[in-house]
Predict the 3D structure of the following.
Amino acid sequence: METRQEEEKKLRVLKVAIVGDGFVGKTTLLRRYCTGLFQESRVMTIGVDFQTVVINLGGERVKLTVWDIAGQERFAFVRDSFYRGSRAVALAYDASDPKSFYDLPRWRDEVWRVVPTALLLVVATKIDLPRAVPREEAIAFARSLPGPYYETSSLAGIGVERFFFGFARRALEGARLAERREPKADRWP
Ligand SMILES: Nc1nc2c(ncn2[C@@H]2O[C@H](COP(=O)(O)OP(=O)(O)O)[C@@H](O)[C@H]2O)c(=O)[nH]1
Ligand SMILES: [Mg+2]
């Protein structure tokens, strides 16, 4: 029989998703992180794309299956199954493109319609480019969710690891919350 400590060392598999307008840099962010570290798998399917990453959160290792909307941003019918079971969802916008920021409430509402228990995060991409969205506004939006706010540049390699650690922490938090609410829920990744 396993001790509690051994049990806790087991890898938890948590599904997360990254959403946002096309071209904001979602796929690049995921690749930037994965190519710097261990990339377990990469699967292409119709409409969605995912990668798994293992992140050590100070003692607890979690495996994130990160679902990336992969060019299907325009096709709502693909997205519901994509969100289902997500423990955390990152809302991504391009800090040099205001439209991508003002579209975030729509992404938030869509995610919450399908997975009301998912915890959210906000991630700004391309901070190497001239900023067109005031940082304070983005922080205020994140606070309204509520959720943490991260800034990244896949190009310059800024904030990428920090964001993924935050993503994993949020996913774990989301999983614990969901288990308290629906103790018999599927552990479908
Ligand atoms: N300057 C800059 N360009 C980026 C960055 N990340 C992605 N891009 C570019 O933005 C475009 C869209 O990226 P992609 O990852 O395909 O966006 P997605 O549609 O959200 O998955 C590509 O041309 C990328 O090279 C970044 O951090 N800085
Ligand atoms: Mg993409």
In short: Strands lie at 12-19, 42-44, 49-57, 60-68, 88-94, 119-125, 149-151. The mean pLDDT is 85. The CA atoms of residues 91 and 122 lie 5 Å apart.
